[in-house]
Amino acid sequence: MTSPAPEQAVPFGESDWEALRAAARDAMSRAYAPYSRYPVGVAARVDDGRTITGCNVENASYGLSLCAECGLVSTLQATGGGRLTHFTCVDGTGSILVPCGRCRQLLYEFGGPELLLETPDGRRTLDEMLPQSFGPQHLG
Ligand SMILES: O=c1ccn([C@H]2C[C@H](O)[C@@H](CO)O2)c(=O)[nH]1
Protein backbone atom coordinates (compact mmCIF):
# COMPACT_ATOMS: atom_id res chain seq x y z
CA MET A 1 0.00 0.00 0.00
CA THR A 2 1.43 3.38 -0.98
CA SER A 3 1.29 6.44 1.27
CA PRO A 4 -0.64 9.44 -0.01
CA ALA A 5 1.43 12.50 -0.97
CA PRO A 6 1.74 14.91 1.99
CA GLU A 7 -0.52 17.48 0.33
CA GLN A 8 -3.22 14.81 0.04
CA ALA A 9 -2.63 13.51 3.54
CA VAL A 10 -3.41 16.92 5.09
CA PRO A 11 -5.60 18.96 2.72
CA PHE A 12 -5.07 22.72 2.86
CA GLY A 13 -7.68 25.07 1.43
CA GLU A 14 -8.63 28.75 1.54
CA SER A 15 -10.10 28.49 5.04
CA ASP A 16 -6.82 26.97 6.21
CA TRP A 17 -4.87 29.92 4.79
CA GLU A 18 -7.29 32.27 6.57
CA ALA A 19 -6.79 30.39 9.83
CA LEU A 20 -3.03 30.55 9.35
CA ARG A 21 -3.19 34.34 8.86
CA ALA A 22 -5.38 34.66 11.96
CA ALA A 23 -2.82 32.67 13.97
CA ALA A 24 -0.02 34.89 12.64
CA ARG A 25 -1.95 38.05 13.57
CA ASP A 26 -2.57 36.69 17.04
CA ALA A 27 1.16 35.99 17.46
CA MET A 28 1.95 39.47 16.07
CA SER A 29 -0.24 41.00 18.81
CA ARG A 30 2.20 39.54 21.36
CA ALA A 31 5.42 40.65 19.65
CA TYR A 32 8.03 42.46 21.69
CA ALA A 33 9.17 45.25 19.35
CA PRO A 34 9.71 48.40 21.47
CA TYR A 35 12.69 49.56 19.38
CA SER A 36 11.53 49.19 15.78
CA ARG A 37 7.83 49.42 16.66
CA TYR A 38 7.40 46.91 13.84
CA PRO A 39 5.67 43.85 15.24
CA VAL A 40 5.71 40.72 13.10
CA GLY A 41 3.81 37.47 13.48
CA VAL A 42 4.24 34.20 11.62
CA ALA A 43 2.37 30.93 11.47
CA ALA A 44 3.01 27.66 9.71
CA ARG A 45 1.36 24.32 9.15
CA VAL A 46 3.46 21.27 9.93
CA ASP A 47 3.13 18.05 7.92
CA ASP A 48 1.50 16.30 10.88
CA GLY A 49 -1.31 18.88 10.84
CA ARG A 50 -0.33 21.05 13.75
CA THR A 51 -0.07 24.84 13.49
CA ILE A 52 2.85 26.72 15.06
CA THR A 53 3.48 30.43 15.46
CA GLY A 54 6.15 32.97 16.36
CA CYS A 55 6.61 36.69 16.96
CA ASN A 56 9.64 38.96 16.87
CA VAL A 57 11.43 39.59 20.15
CA GLU A 58 13.78 42.59 20.16
CA ASN A 59 16.62 43.47 22.49
CA ALA A 60 18.20 46.64 23.85
CA SER A 61 21.34 45.41 22.08
CA TYR A 62 19.57 45.86 18.75
CA GLY A 63 21.58 43.31 16.79
CA LEU A 64 20.45 40.55 19.12
CA SER A 65 16.80 40.94 18.14
CA LEU A 66 15.07 37.78 17.05
CA CYS A 67 12.86 37.67 13.98
CA ALA A 68 9.49 36.01 14.35
CA GLU A 69 10.73 33.11 12.23
CA CYS A 70 13.40 32.32 14.85
CA GLY A 71 10.68 31.72 17.40
CA LEU A 72 8.74 29.64 14.92
CA VAL A 73 11.55 27.20 14.15
CA SER A 74 12.37 26.91 17.84
CA THR A 75 8.73 26.07 18.57
CA LEU A 76 8.75 23.57 15.69
CA GLN A 77 11.57 21.63 17.30
CA ALA A 78 10.35 22.05 20.86
CA THR A 79 6.91 20.69 20.01
CA GLY A 80 7.98 17.59 18.11
CA GLY A 81 9.76 18.60 14.91
CA GLY A 82 8.39 17.78 11.47
CA ARG A 83 8.37 19.55 8.11
CA LEU A 84 6.84 22.95 7.39
CA THR A 85 4.36 22.82 4.51
CA HIS A 86 2.55 26.20 4.54
CA PHE A 87 3.74 29.53 5.94
CA THR A 88 2.48 33.06 6.35
CA CYS A 89 3.95 36.24 7.87
CA VAL A 90 2.12 39.45 8.78
CA ASP A 91 3.17 42.96 9.77
CA GLY A 92 1.66 45.20 12.44
CA THR A 93 -1.37 45.98 10.29
CA GLY A 94 -2.02 42.30 9.69
CA SER A 95 -0.95 42.55 6.06
CA ILE A 96 1.06 39.81 4.41
CA LEU A 97 4.81 40.36 4.62
CA VAL A 98 7.59 38.45 2.91
CA PRO A 99 10.17 37.01 5.30
CA CYS A 100 13.61 38.60 5.28
CA GLY A 101 16.44 36.79 3.51
CA ARG A 102 17.93 35.28 6.65
CA CYS A 103 14.54 33.93 7.63
CA ARG A 104 14.01 32.36 4.21
CA GLN A 105 17.16 30.39 4.95
CA LEU A 106 15.79 29.38 8.37
CA LEU A 107 12.59 28.21 6.71
CA TYR A 108 14.52 26.29 4.04
CA GLU A 109 16.11 24.09 6.68
CA PHE A 110 12.69 22.84 7.85
CA GLY A 111 10.49 23.26 4.79
CA GLY A 112 12.77 22.81 1.81
CA PRO A 113 12.04 24.07 -1.71
CA GLU A 114 8.38 22.95 -1.68
CA LEU A 115 7.29 25.05 1.30
CA LEU A 116 4.44 27.33 0.23
CA LEU A 117 4.61 30.99 1.33
CA GLU A 118 2.08 33.77 1.06
CA THR A 119 3.40 36.98 -0.50
CA PRO A 120 1.63 40.21 -1.46
CA ASP A 121 1.78 38.87 -5.04
CA GLY A 122 0.30 35.48 -4.27
CA ARG A 123 1.56 32.14 -3.07
CA ARG A 124 5.04 31.05 -3.98
CA THR A 125 7.23 28.09 -3.24
CA LEU A 126 10.32 28.74 -1.16
CA ASP A 127 12.30 27.64 -4.19
CA GLU A 128 10.92 30.72 -5.99
CA MET A 129 11.68 32.99 -3.02
CA LEU A 130 15.16 31.59 -2.34
CA PRO A 131 16.47 30.19 -5.62
CA GLN A 132 19.59 28.02 -5.83
CA SER A 133 19.44 27.57 -2.06
CA PHE A 134 22.25 26.32 0.09
CA GLY A 135 20.97 23.67 2.44
CA PRO A 136 21.48 20.39 4.26
CA GLN A 137 21.86 18.63 0.90
CA HIS A 138 25.22 20.33 0.39
CA LEU A 139 26.68 18.91 3.56
CA GLY A 140 26.24 15.27 2.67
O1 LIG B 1 10.96 38.46 8.20
C1 LIG B 1 11.04 39.28 9.12
C2 LIG B 1 11.44 40.63 8.94
C3 LIG B 1 11.52 41.45 10.03
N1 LIG B 1 11.21 40.99 11.28
C4 LIG B 1 11.33 41.87 12.45
C5 LIG B 1 12.75 42.08 12.92
C6 LIG B 1 12.63 43.39 13.68
O2 LIG B 1 12.23 43.10 15.01
C7 LIG B 1 11.49 44.11 12.97
C8 LIG B 1 11.97 45.25 12.09
O3 LIG B 1 12.95 44.80 11.18
O4 LIG B 1 10.83 43.15 12.17
C9 LIG B 1 10.79 39.70 11.48
O5 LIG B 1 10.48 39.29 12.62
N2 LIG B 1 10.72 38.88 10.40
From TrEMBL:
What UniProt keywords are attached to this protein's entry? Answer: Hydrolase, Metal-binding, Zinc
Q: Which CDD domains match?
A: cytidine_deaminase (cd01283)
Positions annotated as active site in the UniProt record: E69
One annotated Gene Ontology cellular component of this protein? cytosol
What catalytic activity is recorded? 2'-deoxycytidine + H2O + H(+) = 2'-deoxyuridine + NH4(+); cytidine + H2O + H(+) = uridine + NH4(+)
What cofactor does its activity depend on? Answer: Zn(2+)
Question: Which Enzyme Commission numbers does its entry carry?
Answer: 3.5.4.5
Q: Summarize where substrate binds, as residue positions.
A: N56, V57, E58, N59, A60, S61, Y62
Q: Name the domain of life.
A: Bacteria
Q: Which GO terms describe its biological process?
A: nucleobase-containing small molecule metabolic process; pyrimidine-containing compound metabolic process
Q: Which intervals hold domain CMP/dCMP-type deaminase?
A: 15-137
**Chain residues that bind Zn(2+):** C67, C100, C103
What InterPro entries does the entry give? CMP_dCMP_dom, Cyt/Deoxycyt_deaminase, Cyt_deam_tetra, Cytidine_deaminase-like
**Has the keyword Hydrolase been applied to this entry?**
yes
UniProt GO molecular function: cytidine deaminase activity; zinc ion binding
Q: What does this protein do?
A: This enzyme scavenges exogenous and endogenous cytidine and 2'-deoxycytidine for UMP synthesis.
Q: Which family does it belong to?
A: Belongs to the cytidine and deoxycytidylate deaminase family.
Tell me what this protein is called.
Answer: Cytidine deaminase
